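Help: why these numbers?

___
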Amino acid sequence: MEITYIACLPANPNTTEFERLLNHTEEVQPMTKIAALLHTEDELKRLAGIFEKHGYQLRIAGGAVSDTLLSNKRYKWYKWESKGDRMRIIFKFAFMLMLAIGGFLDYRLDGTVYDYFNGHEDLKKGVCAFVGDPVSRIQEDYLRILRYFRFFARICNNPNNHKEEVLSAIKNNLDGLHNISGERIWTELNKILGGSFSKEMMLKMLEINMFPHLGLPANPNTTEFERLLNHTEEVQPMTKIAALLHTEDELNTLNKRLKLSTYEKDLARFIINHRHDVSSDPHPLRLYQNLLLFSKLKATTMREYIVELMKYKEKSELIKDFHKWRLPTFPMNGNIIRQYGTVGGKDLGKVTNFF
């Protein structure tokens, strides 16, 4: 059935929510963008009524169907979750799941479920498979290789319950990833690292020799990676990546492939350079205070990096005290120096920075 999006929006839409969403990402379905413009359920009902008047059904694409069926919960008007790929707008009465790998489920407004490829049964069993021949589906879009691992982690209860024919199809088509831009690869990889079973998904990708195609080393630091993920999942995706890297050279190779942001690249470099720092100071917080004190980076950014380092080094008990601590302010400033007329212009900035 043809699905059409028509413009029937409120005269005073929720532009605040709409701009917040689009400033954060463009990688959402058209109906998700429409959702951001609506204030209430009544506005969605009105929109659905216009669809029905013209002989169309309103269907909203996204992962909400699988989440609803798996958890047996009814979601509120919309819900925001920031972890990994779980950022989504969720409606409580109109859902559709159209996964390239998991079948097709359709919720109409009246709650009727249409299941074309036995997708509901797969969800209940925790099975993640391509619709049709996996080789053909992968060759249609090689990014589906990464999407497979992302959806597998969302749907399956057993992180090792992969179908051998799927893994074989992926392994035999890895060269196709070279045609995918680094930015698109990083978007998917970022979601995998921020989702469930991130350790198991990454190790499985390593096992089938995916890493070199992603810019990661063929022989990564799995000891450090497993130590970190066995201790905590509550770190940024880039911190997990840093654990896989031995050196800055490996980070530079990764950056050439994935086109990381400055923030992400600097975070990984910071972790790599300081993860083995030790201090004989009887006050364990002093090591991290000094990192902030002598950093040339913006203080707010450096604080975030240091908190990630604390989690990485299994020092999370220090985070609360670190948040309370404030950088000391040196009593001498530019105005005081200027009063004595000893220095001015650009030299004044150099002197104040020195202090």
In short: The domain at 131-214 is CATH 1.10.3090.10 (cca-adding enzyme, domain 2).
